[in-house]
Amino acid sequence: MHLLFFTLLNIVFAYGATGAGKTFSMLGSPQTPGVIFLSMMDLYNIKESEKDERKIDVSVSYLEVKYPIPNQAKLLDN
Question: How far apart are CA 63 and CA 27, in angstroms?
Answer without folding.
Answer: 12
